[in-house]
């Protein structure tokens, strides 16, 4: 009898421990933290949730977001809002620092953002959620444990089918940035030459965001969704936009007027009666590369279509980052990447 009660006790303890790590309990603890900080109402947007540091996600993310919304509806203080309601600072927090931030700081009442990452660990999925205010200050963090058996029973995926391609593009993008720094150091040594190499700052500021038809920040799309891009630059620049789809096909998106003044926020497409629409039947992680240069000569030639190949980004980037120019004309160039996942 004693062994029986001991077994029951441990079973109850195990169930209780698991329940404390659910999404519902995690959101409830966020609500308690807000109460402790004497915040009576917290307008909260759900930001980006990624698989590890891949900038991609699987079908588990829409499910996670729905669970967060359901849990928030049962709290006293958390009210879920769209990301379109956030200030530019809040949008940067929601996208984990990858949206445009050229607009003036807002003096509106502080809002909040829930974002996170997840990792598989043995028989569980570990979900790490952060609650931050719109200024980027961390309010609370929670580690959520979700059984992988539940994920499988719901037929959910953790990452896109073309994750290998997405990871290669991410690596190529980082390698291209490193290469530009090395090239810049070499150029500074050879600066006494009569011919200068035009090497831009690796962080020449291009900032951009992808929005849906309701002006919400998005990194997950579905076939037939319509999107637009908001782009800003720190210097007067010419731009070009390249899309690499889930199949690895490269396509240059049409731009009517590719000159942007410093600090101006432009919306694309800018062609009359034209929309950017997600193609049906192509699923997985995709990338948008936004090139900018203070001279049109610094933009890549828009003839490189076909399939993406390893180091393509580095080849194109080095093509605009290491171009010999006469000393009479110097320009700066760089590239910005947006990654998103098309869901089935």
Structural notes for this entry:
The chain has 344 residues and is an alpha+beta fold. The model is unreliable at 7-20, 98-106, 184-203 and 318-328 (pLDDT under 50). It folds into 2 domains: 2-153, Rossmann fold; 163-342, Immunoglobulin-like (Sandwich). It is globular. The chain is 28% helix and 31% strand. The longest helix has 27 residues, at 163-189. Strands 8, 10, 11, 12, 15, 16 and 18 form a 7-stranded mixed β-sheet that branches. A 5-stranded mixed β-sheet has the order 2-1-3-4-5, with helices on both faces. Strands 7, 9, 13 and 14 form a 4-stranded antiparallel β-sheet that branches.
Cα(first) to Cα(last) distance is: 53 Å
Radius of gyration of CA atoms, rounded to a whole number:
23 Å
Largest sheet: 7 strands, mixed
Instruction: Tell me which oligomeric state these chains represent.
Output: single chain
How many structural domains?
A: 2
**Alpha-beta content class:** alpha+beta
Overall average pLDDT: 81
CATH class type of the largest domain: Mainly Beta
Question: Which stretches of 5+ consecutive residues score pLDDT under 50?
Answer: 7-20, 98-106, 184-203, 318-328
User: Any idea what the shape is?
Assistant: globular
* CATH fold-type name of the largest domain: Immunoglobulin-like
Number of helices: 7
Helix content: 25-40%
CATH architecture heading of the largest domain? Sandwich
Beta-strand content bin = 25-35%
Q: Could you give the count of β-strands?
A: 18
What order do the helices and strands follow?
HHEHEHEEEHHEEEEEEEEEEEHEE
């Amino acid at each position: 009898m004693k062994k029986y009660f001991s077994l029951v006790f441990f079973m109850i303890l195990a169930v209780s421990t698991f329940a404390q790590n659910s999404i519902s309990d995690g959101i409830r603890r966020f609500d308690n933290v807000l109460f402790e900080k004497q915040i009576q109402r917290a307008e909260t947007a759900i930001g980006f949730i990624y698989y590890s540091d891949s900038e991609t996600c699987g079908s588990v993310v829409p499910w996670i977001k729905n669970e967060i919304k359901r849990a928030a509806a049962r709290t006293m203080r958390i009210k879920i809002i769209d990301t379109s309601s956030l200030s530019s600072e809040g949008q940067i927090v929601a996208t984990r620092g990858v949206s445009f931030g050229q607009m003036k700081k807002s003096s509106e009442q502080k809002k909040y953002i829930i974002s996170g990452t997840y990792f598989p660990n043995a028989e569980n999925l570990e979900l790490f959620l952060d609650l931050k205010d719109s200024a980027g200050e961390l309010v609370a963090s929670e580690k959520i444990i979700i059984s992988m058996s539940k994920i499988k029973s719901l037929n959910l995926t953790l990452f896109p089918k073309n994750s290998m391609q997405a990871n290669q593009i991410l690596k190529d993008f980082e390698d291209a940035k490193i290469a530009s720094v090395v090239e810049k150091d070499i150029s500074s040594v050879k600066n006494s030459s009569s011919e200068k190499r035009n090497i831009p700052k690796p962080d020449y500021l291009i900032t951009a965001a992808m929005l849906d038809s309701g002006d919400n920040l998005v990194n997950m799309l579905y076939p037939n969704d319509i999107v637009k891009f908001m782009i800003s630059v720190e210097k007067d620049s010419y731009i070009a936009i390249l899309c690499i789809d889930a199949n690895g096909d490269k396509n240059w998106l049409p731009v009517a007027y590719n000159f942007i003044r410093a600090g101006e926020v432009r919306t694309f497409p800018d062609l009359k009666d034209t929309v950017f629409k997600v193609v049906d039947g192509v699923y997985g992680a995709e990338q948008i590369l936004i090139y900018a240069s203070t001279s049109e000569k610094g933009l890549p030639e828009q003839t490189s279509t076909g399939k993406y190949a390893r180091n393509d980004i580095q080849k194109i980037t080095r093509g605009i980052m290491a171009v010999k120019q006469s000393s009479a004309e110097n320009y700066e160039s760089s590239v910005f990447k947006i990654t998103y996942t098309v869901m089935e």
